Amino acid sequence: MASVVASFGGPVAVRASSVSSSSNDPKPALIRIPRSSRRAMLAAPVSIVIATRAPDSADASAPGEWGYADSSNGPLRWGDILDADGKASYPACGCAACQQSPIDLVRTAARGNVRVGSLAERLVAPDKPVTLAVSQKHGTPNYVATDRANGAAVVAPDGARYDFDSLHFHTPAENTVDGVANAMEMHMVHVSPAGDVAVLGVLFRHADADSPANAEVTKLLAKIAAEGGREKVRVNLGSLYDSGAGFWEWTGSLTTPPCSGNVRWLLQKGTSGVSAAQCEAFREHVGGYPGNARPTQPLN
After folding, report:
1. How confident is the model at residue 61 (pLDDT cuts 50, 70, 90)?
2. Model-level pTM?
3. How many other C-beta atoms lie within 10 A of the C-beta of residue 281?
4. How large is the greatest C-alpha to C-alpha distance in the chain, in angstroms?
């Protein structure tokens, strides 16, 4: 949950930032999934989704076990999941008054509070490729930097530095724009010396002539089945996003259990391209329908 400055009312923490030279935001395009529909899909009877259950959900009844496809332990029930002692495993996930993510961003509401600027002002890109070790984290490929001193970082307005730690993908995209979910979203996770988290989100639409597939993302998605960190991939982190793009910023949470709060979010405005075939292969890898995206959360 978060809020677009002065547009959703109340003490909302979302800021919209854009480059002054561009007055037209690219249309997010692709999959229109109203919030109510996404929630209805995730609340479907277990018998409907059991065939496409994510590979990590071997026993949905196990204490603390969470997933996406099974209605008994899917996103709408994360806050109700109990541990072996009968206590809530992830209470923050069910906190309606907490700043939870992902959220829906409304461009028309935010336009009056746009701050001139670009991602280049907040991100530090390394001067050489970074090696990422690929493993599976709850059924989803996770790409972890083998060297935390890789030079990539998010720098907050107050000077606080968050160093790049890892990245992963969600399909469909978790954060929506004007109610529209794009085909995929990448989260680049950064961590400060104090353990605080900042996430850079990048939205992807299926590649076409106007928006070809990002070459570095193509390399990453070619390794989705790798396990145990044995396989490595070297990528130019600065090529995974558009440093000249504007961005939205807000305070939210992790989008998977334990849904910890006080996460600094930056979301690139506009979209990049991703191979439709690789996007579908990723969806199948994480269990097929309905993918691995948490529904958008209320703004507080």
Report:
1. low
2. 0.82
3. 14
4. 57
